[in-house]
Amino acid sequence: MLKGTLHWQRLKIYAHNISGLQNSADGAESGVSSPSMFTATISQMVTEIIGPKEAGLKKPTIPEGKTRHLCDVYNSLSTEDKATFLRVVSQQFGTDHDEVLKAAEGLPQAKEKSEGALLKAEERLQAALVPRYHDLFVQIGRLEGGVKHLVDMRADTLDLLSSVKDSAELRSFSSCLREMLSHWFSAGLLHLQRITWESSCDILQKISEYEAVHPMRNWSDLKRRVGPYRRCFIFTHSTMPREPMVVLHTALTNQISDNIQTIVSTPILDEEDVDNINTAIFYSITSTQKGLQGVELGNYLIKRVVRELQAEFPKMTQFSSLSPIPGFRDWLVGEINKVLGSTESSSSEDSGVDGPSSTAPTLLTSAELQKVAEIAGKEDVSPLVTLKKLLQTNQWMGAESMVEVLKDPLMRLCARYLYLEKRRGYAVNPVANFHLRNGAVLWRLNWQADTGPRGISQSCGVMVNYRYFLGDTMRNSQRYMEEQHIEASQQVIDLAQAAGGADSPAGKSNL
User: Where do the Malonyl-CoA decarboxylase N-terminal domain residues begin and end (predicted)?
Assistant: First the structure.
């Protein structure tokens, strides 16, 4: 016991020392200032919580205080030393591959003996496949505030993964933690709560701070978004009662909105006319906890909110999103760069633009490019170079004639981006993928729907409605997940066809 206590004291002293605090005499005497000692101490402390590898399925009874101490120490570490902590745990307390192979080799013999022997052999294999840090997660999850600690720890892991090229151990660590959090944050364990102006100040403050799609400018803006003709719903969890997991903002209208300005800038009204409400527009959904990335929350929230609104407004028949298209402009600039690169390599100004020599989907026609050059006054420069600069600087929005010229090509290319561009068979755009997985229809592209700096920089001002036809969502979701089929309106299909390319769809919408 004394030895274990000394290890805890050493780790806590080291945590203070590396955080820039004054070295204590005890820490100096213990000689714990080296990274190797820090690593060894982390390993020892985790072992004392989950037990040595030799213990197998016999887990020790651990005083809660030791697990709590480890969490406190982790929270006191710098970003760099948290990374060291995560690497040590992921590398030293993962799956024992030798044990897995040994357990797997015993299956054929067990099968020959009896059904009972086979079941026991399978149990041993299942136990061997569980990484040892799984038990650490369980111990931490039992603490008050422990689940929140694990959510934050996974957020740190994701940050670390984004900065390293190859770390199989860290990816497995993150995946194991995600699976555990998925069970803890299943739909049946989440609490739906409507937020109003009368809600507690701390919750309202978090709603304002967490809004990532259409940031709030002031308290009046927040009051508008939780007031009449608006609904704000959140999911909370019993382990994080005053912490919104995901936030959904909804506008109550009498038609499917085609721009965000009318939603976020509408003057505050005193009362709702229930008879004038038949449509719900989901215009902002935000997952607030990075550590829950990959855990299904938003889709369940939309489904729950639909049921709530149907109960409140019996005449409500239309449900649709009004969604941003993050990444569209960057994708388009990338496509322009591909064409410019092809042009340079072939020494042909017409390559990839419009003509028989083009092997890539047409971006703009020759006539459209000529108009861009004329309006910009850059006829001596490649029109695509001019277009690229206009898009990157948002200068094209400053001239009505340029906006008009670019409307058709940008709408075509946006349809191509959402409907045709895929990653592993699914929509490359993350917002599109989210709604399509939920069973929504890629219903309508809206020109000049978000004319704010953020909307222009992300998607050239274009927004999209993903419409939920409630009777078809299950079928649409299944076809998307199993066949990678995107249900789309005729408008979207026609625009995508006009964008050209070998993968252009041929056929009619099912709507």
Answer: 93-185
Residue 270 has a pLDDT of: 79
pLDDT of residue 12: 53
**Measured on CA atoms in the order 167, 173, 179, 182, is the torsion positive or negative?**
negative
**Res 56: pLDDT:** 55
Alpha carbon dihedral 272, 276, 282, 283, in 10-degree steps, equals -70
Strand pairing class (441-446; 246-253) = unpaired
Predicted pLDDT of residue 22: 32
Which runs of E-coded beta strand occur in 359-462? 422-423, 426-427, 441-446
pTM of the full structure: 0.85
* Residues 6+ away with beta carbon under 8 Å from 14: 27, 32, 33, 37, 38, 41
Half-sphere exposure of 250 (CA within 13 A, CB side): 25
DSSP code string of 234-266: EEEETTBTTS-SEEEEEEEESS----SHHHHSP
Task: Identify the pLDDT of residue 54.
Answer: 63
Which of 134, 237, 249, 435 does the annotation list as catalytic? 435
Instruction: Give the other-Cβ count within 10 Å of 436's Cβ.
Output: 26
Is 183 among the catalytic positions?
no
Residue stretches of the chain with pLDDT short of 70: 1-34, 54-62, 343-361, 501-507
Residue where the block lists tokens 């005499």:
25
Dihedral sign computed on CA atoms, order 332, 497, 451, 319? negative
pLDDT at 400: 94
Other CB atoms closer than 10 Å to residue 101's CB: what's the count? 12
435 belongs to the catalytic site: yes
Query: Which pLDDT value is given to residue 59?
Result: 58
DSSP-based three-state secondary structure for 66: helix
**The pLDDT value given to residue 458:** 95
Nearest Cα residue to 170 out of 88, 105, 80, 233: 88
Active-site option among 90, 323, 351, 477: 323
